[in-house]
Amino acid sequence: MCGIAGVQATAEAPAPAPTRLARLAAALAHRGPDGMGEEIAGRVGLVQTRLAIIDLAGGRQPLHAGAASLVANGEIYNYRELHDALSQGPHPPRFATASDCEPPLHLWHKDGLGFVGALRGMYAIALHDRAARRLVLARDPFGIKPLYLAQGSEGLVFASEPEALLAAGVVARAVAPESREELLQLQFTTGGATIYPGIQRVLPGEILVAADGHVIERHQTPALPEGGPEEIDEPQALARLDAALADSVALHQRSDVPYGLFLSGGIDSAALLTMMARLNAAPVLAFTAGFDVPGAADEREAAAALARAAGAQHETLEISRAMVWRHLPEIVAAMDDPAADFAIIPTWFLGRAARQAVKVVLSGEGGDEMFAGYGRYRSAMRPWFLGGRVMRGRGIFDRVPGVLRARSGAWRDGIAAAEAAAASPGRTRLMAAQASDIAEWLPNDLLLKLDRCLMAHGVEGRTPFLDRGVADAVFRLPDRLKIRNGMGKYLLRAWLAAHQKAARPFARKQGFTVPVGAWIAEDGERLGALVAASPGIAEIAHPDRVRALFRAAGGRHEGQAAWTLLFYALWHRAHILGQTPAGDVFSALAGE
Q: Is 2 one of the annotated active-site residues of the chain?
């Protein structure tokens, strides 16, 4: 896990300046506290800030093979198998390191743009082939690792985070109104465009080829298998799931540093802990967060029972309102590509706590999408005349009208495009709903949250459910093995019932909530006035209605809308006004 950045200059521009690379690297230093490497070769400059996980002594980047150089952010979990396969070929390469990121470099020489086809892992790769005079950028198919690019005056500039491009002066700090509306209504933004005009995401699974400072080719590697449901019975499906999960978890545990697990009281992390306990001789180190609000959904008791049953070492963390108000400005500042998901709060605090003992954590992101766990999927399966509803058919501020000054109604265009693309031939309504979430919600909310909140503390997050082997094993399962008797994730629950009954796999899903509405309501008068007066909010919302909204934040919809405005006010100060977070939430909102 690292930060990467680089420049490919146009034919008319000078070679990349070391000062520009230094500014990019400085903005990514939190992603890689263990070292920095850089290279300028002709009109291309590459830089990496390193979080050392595998080959601690020899894995410094850029890596080199022949005329090609590579920097990468992420982990290639099947690097040992790739090393062995390449070494047995007719013209075996000479490996210079034991790094997981060296095999892709040799695969490039062997397979060209097809080099990503053999990779199992999470990655954002930049590869410069000096002989071909090409720069190649590649992102893993699920979009677990981020990568952004901008067309600057000197050519193409890329980085692991938009804030690096802003800090280096590649683009100006500004907001795209259409993306802002999408953020406010959905809590995340979709597609290739970011909220910053001039900064684009490299899409999940995308491979870009650039020459002379311009993208000249685009290719796509799909995350999910094509086709409709397979004919398979439950025993066969359970056996296949067991094999796929064992394989994926074993690969995701490969590390030269200590690792642990984020454990909730839910099905996904319970399945991971069950498999980790099977594969590890030593107790698994598990971390769980809870809240100090009476009546809030708190998973610590269920997680503790599961940890005892699995023989895990269990550490818990209680998050209070005071802690949140003290650290919220820096939590929000970590989300430079904004996702106003309130789960950023426990994720950030868990990352900080985990860093005292480990540098790697496994997490259950992707389980709901892969196994069909969300209630919205059950609704999406039904036609409209039987009560079916379009997912995300109403935005956050559709439910509290009158707060925003203007609403165009175009905020759903990106989701609608993803839904249309996901409904490929043969897929059921359920499969299309899953595929839509995997294309947009997963990379642009859940995985973005995990990446930024953990990398803020120098911790690598790994997601075993988001693996090609798992996707091939479960995505094309028939609907009846995903949802049964009104309950999602049937097959994963059935697997847990056979392997870890302490998980109570057929208990009703509690749902993970963070009591932000209750916290905001306690300080609603003060927060409402500060948020209403914040520059980012004053231009888009009616101040009196913002204040009224915060006073009513104890309501479900009002609390969600108030949280979204609070997030946006803090985000705008950090990333558009460029104010370094200092002090608590009240000081930050006041601009002190």
A: yes
